[in-house]
């Protein structure tokens, strides 16, 4: 447990993260299904004015409120990464969904303390759904504690990935093998999948080629709901992780997935 002073400060940081959500959500919805121009970044991923404007607004609020904190964002780079507190921002996780009118995109916000994610937020603007994970506390979904399912066997699991296009050839073979052992395999969802996992609706998510702004917010959310999230080798996720992510409802299911990865 945190001390009284620590709890007060942590509550303040979580409340501030909700301010960032309240800032980002209407900005995203103002552009959603509006046929806005789409550009291609150097890595060929799409970006819009909404992505850049939302991140800029969040960064400005962070810099005003916590000027000593660092920031890592998808669209506007890094600042002050040697700070003990670093915010990791993905203004629109799932830009492909966003620009095609699919209501499964989200805003991801994480706070790292000495490099470790201790606060994570998944916000789904089209639905208003909100998951908040805080170190050592139960994950909250729309203000109520949520929990992953009790699924402990891959043969019983409902497994997701965002898209097979996100895997390289070797990674897709691994995913195909692992997911073929599951009870059901589904595609789509972006960060929404991890919220659904935290709330017990699906049992596993497996992806690769993710960046820190794609996965750091997910860690406190999944772990606070009773699940496990690591890289494909079972190592904790951090800023230097290789982007291979597997999340599971229970330690037993996670261990079986990792065994299948190695097979």
What are the defining features of this structure?
single chain; 263 residues; alpha+beta; Fructose-1,6-Bisphosphatase, Chain A, domain 1; D-Maltodextrin-Binding Protein, domain 2; 2 domains; disordered N terminus
The class by helix and strand makeup works out as alpha+beta
Q: Give the full name of the CATH homologous superfamily of the largest domain.
A: Fructose-1,6-Bisphosphatase, subunit A, domain 1
| Mean pLDDT rating | 93
Range of strand content: 25-35%
Count of alpha/pi helices: 8
Instruction: Kindly identify the CATH topology of the largest domain.
Output: Fructose-1,6-Bisphosphatase, Chain A, domain 1
Strand order of the largest sheet: 4-3-5-6-7-8-9-10
Sequence of secondary-structure elements: HEEHEEEHEEEEEEHEHEHHEEH
CATH class of the largest domain: Alpha Beta
Model description:
It catalyses: a myo-inositol phosphate + H2O = myo-inositol + phosphate; L-histidinol phosphate + H2O = L-histidinol + phosphate. The strands form three sheets. An eight-stranded mixed sheet has the order 4-3-5-6-7-8-9-10, with helices on both faces. A five-stranded mixed sheet has the order 12-11-13-15-14, sandwiched between helices. A two-stranded antiparallel sheet has the order 1-2. The protein is 35% helix and 25% strand. Mean pLDDT is 93; it is low at 1-10. The longest helix has 28 residues, at 4-31. It folds into two domains: 4-145, Fructose-1,6-Bisphosphatase, subunit A, domain 1 (Fructose-1,6-Bisphosphatase, Chain A, domain 1); 154-262, D-Maltodextrin-Binding Protein, domain 2 (3-Layer(aba) Sandwich), CATH 3.40.190.80. The relative contact order is 0.13. The protein is of the alpha+beta class and 263 residues long. Helix 4 links the parallel strand 11 and strand 12.
């Amino acid at each position: 447990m945190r001390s009284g002073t620590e709890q007060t400060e942590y509550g303040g940081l979580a409340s501030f993260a909700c301010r960032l959500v309240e800032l980002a959500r209407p900005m995203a919805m103002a552009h959603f299904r509006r046929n806005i121009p789409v550009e291609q970044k150097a890595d060929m991923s799409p970006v819009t004015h909404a992505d850049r404007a939302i991140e800029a607004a969040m960064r400005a609020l962070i810099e005003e409120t916590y000027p000593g904190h660092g920031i890592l964002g998808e669209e506007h780079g890094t600042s002050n990464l040697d700070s003990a507190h670093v915010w990791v921002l993905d203004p629109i996780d799932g830009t492909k969904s966003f620009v095609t009118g699919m209501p499964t995109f989200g805003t991801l916000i994480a706070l790292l303390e000495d490099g470790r994610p201790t606060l994570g937020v998944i916000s789904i603007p089209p639905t208003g759904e909100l998951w908040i994970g805080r170190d050592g506390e139960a994950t909250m979904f729309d203000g109520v504690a949520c929990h992953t399912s009790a699924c402990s066997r891959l043969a019983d699991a409902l497994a997701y990935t965002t898209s097979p296009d996100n895997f390289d050839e070797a990674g897709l073979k691994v995913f195909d093998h692992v997911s073929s052992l599951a009870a059901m395999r589904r595609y789509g969802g972006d960060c929404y999948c991890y919220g659904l996992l935290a709330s017990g609706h699906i049992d596993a998510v497996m992806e690769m080629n993710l960046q820190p702004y794609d996965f750091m917010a997910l860690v406190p959310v999944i772990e606070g709901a009773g699940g496990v999230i690591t890289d494909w080798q079972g190592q904790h996720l951090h800023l230097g992780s290789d982007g291979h992510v597997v999340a599971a409802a229970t330690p037993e299911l996670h261990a079986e997935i990792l065994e299948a990865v190695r097979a």
